Amino acid sequence: MNITDDDSPNGARNAAFTPPGDGAGTERAGRGRKALLSSSMVGSTNRGRVLQALFDLGPTSRAELARLAGVNRTTISGIVQPLIDDQVLVESDPVPANPGGGKPARPLWFSPHARPICGVLLMPDAVHACVATLDGKIESERKIALPDGRGPVQPIIETIAQCVGDTLAKARRTPFGIGVGVGGMVDTDRGSIVTVNLAPSLDRYPLADDLGRRFGLPVKLDHHPRALLVGDRWFGAGRGVRQFAVVYTGEVLGGALYFDGHLYRGTAGAGGELGHTFVQLDGELCRCGRRGCWDTIATLSWLRREAARAALPEADLVDSARLVDMAARRLPGAAELLDRYARNVAVGIANLQQTVAPNIFILHGDVVLGGDRLLTAIADHVRAMVPSRPGGAIEFIAGDAGDRAALLGAAGLVISELLQLPI
């Protein structure tokens, strides 16, 4: 954490030469020149860094925050006191001083009276919404199956609105806003869906504007894997990590990257469509209309087709958990298919590692159901494909097989923007 020290709470004197990072890339201005920060922007940047430190460290006193930031306690107090006044933070009861003496510490943490946040996960077959606290506790949630994504769009939108409305009705206070993670391509600048391959009726729909009008709240829209990454960054295995990648597997594939403390987004939210990177030139025809996409060899649809060819029981229901169980029971063909599936998942991860070398991969979705056996097989294949080099071992972490991380990450998109947290 790097906070400027000054006589004023904002510490504007030295920070004006430190450009903020929002993870979205910086537009070119005057062929690479970057504007200086105003004192108000410095204040919001410092506030975001203090909140980021609390997410990373847990309850922490003013004195400890000042020590970690290399500033005086007055600077920290100037940043946190407005957050306490606004009931975003609360100072807990004093903790007894250590045997060496000193003033008892009063750790800061997120207030139970703070306004909550609404997170929404929109996938081709269902919408899932929650109301969550700032420290990542889900207070209420609702999930509803969606109408056919190839039919009229309005019944789909009304179902989404119903799910969000039912969830908001359970909130104890008006939420800060609504964050939506979409299982498809999005335009983050416009707040609209670009395309959802499995639900084409949603293509080009201005979802953020629609929900904003209905509920009178700010709405932030982003790609589902980026929502997963934000969930891991604030509440999961990515907490405190400066560089990692998230990979999601299931009916579709996707991913997101976190570099040097920032979530990576392409222009208008492009990127993250890892399932449509090429792994087999002139390979199988993909749903996107191209051939050889990673999506064609490492999704559940591929796995179930291959399970049917191997004459495995109930092939149309096979997922990673069932396949690992079949392999453990030594059903003919199960272990071989499990290894092929692991290798196919590993191909795309190896390409990502060769390109940008995140070294830490947090896996979500179907492969997590395969437990240690599948995770180990994927890791072994990746390491066999990627030449060893300086920079540390590649680490694989099992994330969330369900929706919790994505829901919290979608909610985190709103908080990151409104409280200007540096994701």
From TrEMBL:
<dbReference type="InterPro" id="IPR036388">
    <property type="entry name" value="WH-like_DNA-bd_sf"/>
</dbReference>
<dbReference type="InterPro" id="IPR036390">
    <property type="entry name" value="WH_DNA-bd_sf"/>
</dbReference>
<keyword id="KW-0418">Kinase</keyword>
<keyword id="KW-0808">Transferase</keyword>
<protein>
    <submittedName>
        <fullName>Sugar kinase</fullName>
    </submittedName>
</protein>
<feature type="region of interest" description="Disordered">
    <location>
        <begin position="1"/>
        <end position="30"/>
    </location>
</feature>
<dbReference type="InterPro" id="IPR043129">
    <property type="entry name" value="ATPase_NBD"/>
</dbReference>
<dbReference type="Pfam" id="PF00480">
    <property type="entry name" value="ROK"/>
</dbReference>
<dbReference type="InterPro" id="IPR000600">
    <property type="entry name" value="ROK"/>
</dbReference>
<dbReference type="GO" id="GO:0016301">
    <property type="term" value="F:kinase activity"/>
</dbReference>
